[in-house]
Amino acid sequence: MEDTSRSLFKIDDNTYEVPLGYRPGMRVPGRIFVSAALRNMVEPGTVDQVANVATLPGIVKYSMAMPDAHLGYGFPIGGVAAFREDDGIISPGGVGFDINCGVRLLRSDLEAEAVQPRINTLLDALFQAIPSGLGSTGRLHATDQQLTEAFISGARWAVEEGYGFEDDLTHCEESGGMAGADPDQVSVKARKRGRPQMGTLGSGNHFLEIQRVEEIYDPAVARQFGLFKGQITVMIHCGSRGAGHQICTDHLEVLSRAVRKYNIAIPDKQLACAPLGSPEARQYFGGMVCAANYAWTNRHIIAHWTREVFEKYFPGSRLDLVYDVAHNVAKIEEHNVDGKRERLYVHRKGATRAFGPSRSEVPAAYAAVGQPVIIPGSMGTSSYVLCGSDAALDLTFGSACHGAGRVMSRSQAIKLFTGQSVKAALNKDGIVVRSTSPSMLAEEAPQVYKPSGDVVDVVHNLGIATRVARLVPLGVSKG
Fold it and tell me: Which residues span the domain enclosing 313?
């Protein structure tokens, strides 16, 4: 396989360019944000995908890859690209199958010393309360009408049904629900898959993790976020489950035909897309928003049940929402492009919004500093809380990494690790784990990911988002 990294042009210590001549038809260069050490972990196929995205109509500035980027479907995972509203496109490959896979961080008023002795009991209770695993079904048993309301309203519907609090909504990206949902674009099959799965973690890299705040880098911003050293936090990582996957699958078929209908030249069939403003684009966007709102509802319900478990074992304790961020979504945003304010469809696939204090979308509680940017680690390694910056707006359309990023396929991981060995290693490090599947533990061994600290260093050093706190796992519930 060709070493495409040799074709990259170094801009600075954390930025490499994929030049316009790398692939015929590129409309803009590519930018890959990695350190020298992480550059060696960038697969040639990932560079190719950055270049492929750069050929799409209406793309502005750059096709980008965050430091956790790796090979994905069409776009790389960790990819960011923005398209003009008047001549651009929308592509499911730039969003992903797990629409609005994202992360929610809850902060407690408990210190680790109070929780650690009961960590096994607490984790067992959470594992029982919150269904997980491949094809898992939930406790909610939503009706079709309730599902429709969740598609339209997102987490607000959950609050109205008695899950969580009104104040939670102000601490969610998009207030927990995007505008533009069109339930008519959700197939019967997608509804059938989504109805029983509301309130479930799912499988793969999804998790619920009890954590301790291990290190504070910026005390002033940490106070704004309500974080302190030794504090117990809970991180929830999941998405839109089978509903989102089916919505993506259904619309990929439509958009594959749209490519031929509108005579769009694409270098990879996985980049199926439609011109913005076309019926096919509007239909996909309406369905995608439904899936995104389902995901916010899903995390909201899981957070509610997490609070119930904590209340049982630590009566009177609090679990307040720090923030909830989306990782896989396309959104209409205004950005400056060549000195002009433009409406763009920003695709973030495996990337986190990282808006600074100048943006009105940042919640009032964080308006003075910027939004929380939550970066989960791999199972057994540190997670990070960062703060978005205005510098990111010009550099990456206000986007940061979303995690550590895989360096090994799931099939490779199973050959090298067993669930038993991974669990034993975690236990040795003082981390307890519960999982429905030993093979899933093997697939998610910490060694199959890039070092999360190295990935975060790139984002911090570029000024995209700045470090606020480091969180370490105490107990992990997996699918």
Answer: 4-407+449-478
